[in-house]
Specification:
Elements lengths: L17 E6 L5 E5 L5 E3 L11 H11 L3 H8 L3 H13 L12 E9 L6 E9 L5 E7 L3 H5 L1
Antiparallel strand pairs: 1-2, 2-3, 4-5, 5-6
The protein binds zinc ion.
Amino acid sequence: MALNSTWCCRCVGEIKYMIKYGKTKSGNQRYICKLCKKTRVENYNYQAYKPDTNKNIVQLTKEGLGIRSTARVLKISTTTLLKRLVSIARNINHPIISKGRTYEVDEMCTYIRNKRNYTWLVYALEKNSKSVVAFYVGRRTNKTWIL
Ligand SMILES: [Zn+2]
């Protein structure tokens, strides 16, 4: 009954025994974790359920692929991709701005739809690592510079 090779995604780090829990519509075996009661299927037909989909989305976005080309490469819909991008972005931890370091603040101006609708991108870089520690997108006001 118990299957060694099937992992529970929530109980990462420890191999937990999963037990059979019926079958899917397509006939694949479904398993349930004894601890957290989360079910999973070993081989999903739907590409977005695969465990490395979010990792691939991040990698392809960093490579500069657009929404439609990323969706085409991963064989998922653009709606699913956009929802995943939002959820991945919400889980990013903000870096800590500490007093001992030097930061560079710069701004960039662009417009949305027409040239009267200016939008400013203000960002702060940590000088040594060149990583973005904070940014703001919107109108140029005194609030914008506070970040
Ligand atoms: Zn579990």
